[in-house]
Amino acid sequence: MQDLVGLVVIAIVVMVAYFEIPFAGRTFTTSSTTPGVLPCAPARCYATASDDPRVDRGASAWQSEPWARVVHDSLADREVPLWNPYQGLGQPQAADPPTAVFDPLSLAVHLRPTPLVEDLTSLVVLVLIGMATFWAVRMIGMSPLAATVSGSVFALSGWFVVYSNNPWFSNYLYLPLMIGSIEWALRSKRWLPVALLALSVTGLLFVGMPEPAFMTLVGVGVYTVVRLATGPVAGRWLLGAARVLGGAVVGLLLAGPLLLPFLEFLPLSQNTHAKLGDLAPETDALGQLVAWLVPKINDVSTPRNWVGVGAALLVVAAFVTPKVFRRFSGWPLVGMGTLVALQVYGGGLVGWTRHLPFWSQASWPRFGTPILAFSLAALAGVGIEVLRARALVVRRYLMVLAFLAVIALLVASAAPWPLALSSHVDALRGWPLALLVTAAVVAVVLLVHPRRRAPVVAALVVVASVLLVPHGFYAARADPYPATKWLRLLQTETARDQSRVFSTDGVLFPDSAGVYRLSDPRMLDALYIQRYWRYLRSFVSRGLDDRFVATGFTETAPNIAGNQMFDLLGVRYLVFRSNSAGPPSWSSPQFQLVYRGEGVKVYENTHVAPRAFVVHDVRQVHDEDAAFRALSEGDTRHFPDGSPVVEHKDLTSSAVIERDGPKVRTGDCSGAHDSAHVVERRATRVIVDVDTHCAGMMVLTDAYYPGWTARVNGRDTTIHPTDVAFRGVEVPDGRSRVVFEYRPASFRAGLVLAAVGVLGLLALGVLGIVTRRRRLPRGGEVATGDERMDP
């Protein structure tokens, strides 16, 4: 009964802390305040609340929410969402982990991607995070009261506020689930916790954010090692370690359908994170440590996380009571938290970590602090256990508090915003609340009977955690993707010839185009197909850095007018705001105004290349570098950014392919009467009907990428990298049907690994049943003693 009460309390405090979402029609999404999201063109966005603490408002609005709708479309078409046909020239989808196509927690959103469903999903995940922490703390052996405090503190910790618009915060649901499973697996000989650990590892990976998933696994690994060295283990130490490791391995196997395509994509991608190993690790200043106690929420300096002074006071009580501290896994929690704290605040101490694989590509200050918050929340639970056991030495506790207060003041004075309160923040959430909570806890310790200290302090800490959650900055809930007249025009026109759309002033952002099933050669992502990225930087926009949105300050203006390499991307329609002057070169007759209204202008590119065409002039080279040289050789003019102007050949009648071996056979004909029409296009299937008077190479201006197969008139054929970024297949004279299908071997191999993982889970179940029966004495009761150590 006490456990049920604790879980209900956690659910209530989360709902109260975020009451604007379920009860006031507000939303976690930032789409209405983020430029580039319809109808939020840069000049039409609603003002962002000045005290909005969220530090990455664009990530969800530009990426997560559009991707969810693309996944929904694939599922509605009864396809496995393996490929995104709308981003760039097409992009791996399942192999791009942040798209979260396999995340079970995102299933409701993928089935019905509306703002309400997204908000309710995020609320449910926040509640589950608190409940999972409750369960993990109970597995450690603490009371329901302590578990309630820990669950409330972690679920309401600042990181979840700061990143509340990003659905992938669900990564950290699996942190307490893994900790609880490991504790259970080490304290008993049952196999159910091993299976739960495996499912937790799989769930963590399926959320799809590699950085927080990696950090969580590292943190849990440190916890496990310290726990094995300092805590009780049922049976042999080595067997306990093997059980935990076995659960982790089964979890990795179950995640095979995501991991293997991702590992295939990674070396073939443009990945800006790969450069981070050449730089000193990102760390926060020591002065920001004070934000864990007293968050400063404004538009100048936003902390990434906080737990509040109440939780910190309980952590101190745990540290000054060594016996209770050791009993409830204090050292494993400290080990995990210390690792993160050093990486986040260690400065020059952690410079050597840039040489570690994966480690150097992760932003620990941005994604690691929830692990530290969990450690502090669990240690706050240990502090409640100290009060429950009446083991607190008051004098020692007050002396340590006084010493730490002096240290906190010194650290605060080193911060760029010492002890200041923003005018945009309710003062109750600043130092006044911290001082009030501190005074209240000290008063309870000094004046309240030891028997009543624990519940009173628990109530104070939970209430303080609720009060620390800021309000007033959430936007009203509304559909961010309205159906406008100009969008319906683009949908109708592009459906006829499968052409693409483009914009250089943010009217239509790259990933948002996919919501309307419009293809856009731009991309906003973390990974890009390397071949296509190189094509863009060589011929379209040499100043690209880590994204191609055509509006960013990190990019040069794309070379559009008079650029045959841009025309080859199949962009027929370009969209701009009505008050946009456009590039000077737009006086060219190449661009014809075809629509004006609703604050938007739509131009047609009259030089656009068709999505598919046949060439007979084929130049064969050995590799990608040679293909680049062949495409640009002979051209002497350059665009202002240095990109070559390719003008000495017609790229719709000639092509450069990469092939070792016999030359491609092509007929000697003009190609004037050739035709190639895309008659069916789905995410993972494209059908092109070809009619040519002699043999040639059919070029499809979709991305060349492994996993795509082709059949010509029912016979398998080879897809050649064509003009670096595209696909080309040989076609005979006459009429042919070319069928492209995306069937990546990496995904099929991943399914095999997942099947092995399922067999592993079944084996664990059978082993658990057999082991349990062996432990049953003749009377039917489960044996107790050293054989069973469940908390």
Low-confidence stretches: 418-425, 778-791
- Report the helical percentage: 40-55%
Proportion of beta-strand residues: 5-15%
Strand order of the largest sheet: 14-15-21-17-18
- Structural class, by secondary structure, is alpha+beta
Distance between the termini: 16 Å
What's the quick description here?
By secondary structure, the protein is an alpha+beta fold. The chain is built from 25 helices and 21 strands.
Task: Give an account of the 3D structure.
With 791 residues, the chain is an alpha+beta fold. The protein contains 25 helices and 21 strands. The strands form seven sheets. A five-stranded antiparallel sheet has the order 14-15-21-17-18, with no helix packed on it. A four-stranded mixed sheet has the order 6-8-10-9, with helices on one face. Strand 17 and strand 18 form a beta hairpin. The longest helix has 31 residues. The C terminus is likely disordered.
Keywords:
25 helices; alpha+beta; 4-stranded mixed beta sheet; 5-stranded antiparallel beta sheet; about 800 residues; disordered C terminus
Draw up the topology in text:
Blueprint: H1 2-17, H2 20-23, E1 26-27, H3 57-76, E2 83-84, E3 91-92, H4 107-111, H5 115-140, H6 144-155, H7 158-162, H8 174-187, H9 192-207, H10 210-230, H11 237-254, H12 256-265, E4 269-271, H13 309-319, H14 322-327, H15 330-345, H16 364-367, H17 369-388, H18 394-413, H19 431-447, H20 450-468, E5 475-476, H21 485-497, E6 500-503, E7 527-529, H22 530-539, H23 564-567, E8 571-577, E9 591-597, E10 600-605, E11 612-615, E12 617-621, H24 624-632, E13 654-658, E14 675-682, E15 685-692, E16 696-700, E17 708-712, E18 715-717, E19 720-722, E20 726-731, E21 734-742, H25 745-775
Parallel strand pairs: 6-8, 12-13
Antiparallel strand pairs: 1-5, 2-3, 4-7, 8-10, 9-10, 11-16, 14-15, 15-21, 16-20, 17-18, 17-21, 19-20
